[in-house]
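Hi C.,

You asked whether I'd gotten around to modeling the 275-residue construct. I have! Everything is below, sequence then structure, no commentary in between.
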Amino acid sequence: MKSYIGRPRLIVQERVIERDDEDRCESPIFIVGAHRSGTSLVRRMFNSHPQIACPPETFFIANYVAMLDDADVALGYEGFGQNADAMRGDLARKAASQHEAFRRAQGKEIWADKTPQYTGHLDGIDRLFGRKARFVMVLRHPCDIVHSIHKRGWSFNDIEDPFESTMIYVRQAIDNLLAFEEAQPDRCTRLDYRELCGDPGPTLAAAMTKIGLNYDPEMLAFGDKNHNYGLEDPVIRGKKSVEASAGAWRGWSEAQKARAAELFGERALEEAYWV
């Protein structure tokens, strides 16, 4: 209902313009997190920055990562006299072509990508872009994520029990984020969803400083700006300001809470999980 009422009466999409020149963004931004972590909100904040263009979810970059690791693809490039580094560069340019065109259409300098599925491809994406990309880790209380996914009936693995399936997915997504952050700390920054909702300006400023960017107040005016529409959380489309959503998991059974504590640690039953 919120999605329907908040839908735009007229959808204005930025149209990409394909160009191949030397004006390229060498250090793109990837906004990553488990589904229902708040990545759609963060995407709109970053797309509102005067220097950053961040469209809806892309999905296709993971396929370029798969080609990067495909021995047959490497043989194909060798047939054109291209070595592994040349292949990587060509795949990266192709993977970024729509982003490059989109940011130019908006007159911006940096492109960013927000696709939750990429949480499982972080190192591959980093290799594809020559270890120059920057990563914004959106971290929300794991129980809030589980509750939000479970009530929607989504499944991301083959585990039969829906609640356990969601628990395992969230645990794996968080593990992927933290492992990559440990491996590449200088190019990763955290955004705690709880802190972002409670004190958005300073929280954004601190996170962006970590990856060499400046905060701009326009990021909080995301509700007044046009954003291309794609596959993303439909509820966020109608929101004009930051609204916290947390704690619904407290209605779980004691057995469910015990399982959460087992998977996520004793802090899983506390409000400020990421402190």
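If it helps when you're writing up: The first strand starts at residue 29 and ends at 32.

Thanks,
B.
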